[in-house]
Amino acid sequence: PTKLRVSQALSGADLGANVKVQGWVRSVRPQKANVFLHVNDGSSLQPLQVVAGAELNDPLLTFGSAVEVTGSLKKSPHKKQPVELEADQITVIGECNPVDFPFKIKERHGLEYIRQFPHLRCRTNAFSSLLRIRSEATTAVHSYFRENDFVQIHTPIITSNDCEGAGELFQVEPSGPEIVEDEYFFSVPAFLTVSGQLHLEVISGAFSRVYTFGPTFRAENSQSRRHLAEFYMVEAEISFTESIEDLTKVMEDMFKSATEHVLAHCVEDVDLFHKHVTPGHRVSMLKCFILSTLRITYTEAVDILNRSSEKFTFPTDWGCDLKTEHEKYLVKHCGNAPVFVTDYPYDLKPFYARDNQDHPERTAAAVDLLVPGVGELCGGSLREERLDLLSARLEEYLDLRRFGSVPHGGFGLGFERYLQCILGVDNIKDVIPFPRFSHSCLL
Ligand code: 4AD
Ligand code: MG
């Protein structure tokens, strides 16, 4: 028999063929003459229906057990499943005691419940859909950049810089004896990267349009539903960029084209989310996706906050950092749609952000994209390319400006927050296979 994935079997291309399918049992329905099984192997949301004579029934055929079925593919009399597998042999490869198995047949378990079982949640419909969507969204991001002439750069995971200057670094040293000062493995303190931006800036000085998409690490203490200690970031850097408008165009374009790709390639999986896991989210997601994104300045944002009747916990005067509560309010105020906030106070942004010298207030040419349910999805800026305006404290960074320095800018998009945004998932821990956050590094 030909070995087939469930998705291949369901495609109908092999009707009549003698095939072998391996997977995990999703349901068992014994009847007088027959037993019906649903088998899944992660290749599609829809399981393959297996029909077998009652003599093939086995008490070990339980929800969650692993099986190998051989038989022939037949057209199914049921509309819902075009194809079924008429079995002539069923072998239980891995038993699964239904009493101990944390998921129960026919029950729809919530994301919070399944999160307790990081080694098993990929067996649920919701999480397997999420993983397929995550994979397709990754492809979508790469396709966008390829189609738009960006070169992918593998920026290092281990680095000696703290790009964001926020001091949320994980230090890297060999395990074993205590670290002795002056005996660093790399001769200097080294860390897991918080952002590939500085390395992208280097290469953008020769390649114009570059991007990276990899893991980044931050020792965030917060237990929030939008922060992880390890997350994936999509970062782009574009040379000869002179306005924030140029940058927001790329950010918006990438967001929309990736989402379009996901919607076109993951119809069933996205549907499962929007219908059952996060019901009611589809409309707000489509809004993000179809509308042209509003642009307001930080100064306008602060005005909006100050004119509202809402009682905020944190201050809202000019110069204040925009907190989650402020971001939420701004998104709501803008019709529950995404909004770009530009031109933040200079002092709020990292050293690399470009000084807007022509503004009455001291602002930087920086932009954040705020989206419903998540808040900040992307952060970007024009970079300070003028040597004389950069402070002397970062000799290394200055050297990047000495040889053919051009106006440039870039941004970073939190990939998990992106998935939260399009799927309506409340907690970031539910959109990454193995979440890492303070006091938790399971598996
Ligand atoms: O705003 P951030 O800190 O910007 C940078 O790191 C820039 N160097 C990027 C660049 O311009 N190349 O991070 C970018 C995005 C945020 O908008 C957010 O979506 C996400 O990364 N992010 C996190 N996502 C999950 N967990 C965390 N702890 C995150 N911190 C930032
Ligand atoms: Mg930011």
Q: List ligands, each type once.
A: 4-amino-1,4-dioxobutan-2-aminium adenosine-5'-monophosphate, magnesium ion
Give the averaged pLDDT, no decimals: 92
Regions with little confidence, pLDDT below 50 for 5+ residues: none
Task: Specify Rg, calculated over alpha carbons.
Answer: 26 Å
Order of helices and strands: EHEEEEEHHEEEHEEHHHEHHEEEEHEH
In angstroms, what separates the terminal alpha carbons?
37 Å
The beta-strand count equals: 17
| Largest beta-sheet characterization | 9 strands, mixed
* Total separate domains: 2
Shape: elongated
Summing up helix and strand content along with how strands pair, one would put the structural category as: alpha+beta
Compute the number of helices. Answer: 11
Would you give an account of this structure?
The model has no long low-confidence stretch (mean pLDDT about 90). Helix 3 (about 125-145) packs across helix 6. Helices cover about 25% and strands about 25% of the residues. The strands form three sheets. Strands 7, 10, 11, 12, 13, 14, 15, 16 and 17 form a nine-stranded mixed β-sheet that branches. Strands 2-3-4-6-5 form a five-stranded mixed barrel. A two-stranded antiparallel ribbon has the order 8-9. It is elongated. It is α+β, with helices and mostly antiparallel strands and about 450 residues long. The chain has two domains: about 1-105, Beta Barrel (OB fold (Dihydrolipoamide Acetyltransferase, E2P)), CATH 2.40.50; about 120-430, BirA Bifunctional Protein, domain 2, CATH 3.30.930.10. It starts with a strand and ends in a 20-residue tail after the last helix. The site of magnesium ion (MG) has 3 residues, from strand 16. Keywords: Aminoacyl-tRNA synthetase, ATP-binding, Ligase, Nucleotide-binding, Protein biosynthesis. It comes from Amphiprion ocellaris (Clown anemonefish). Belongs to the class-II aminoacyl-tRNA synthetase family. Its EC number is 6.1.1.22. This is asparagine--tRNA ligase.
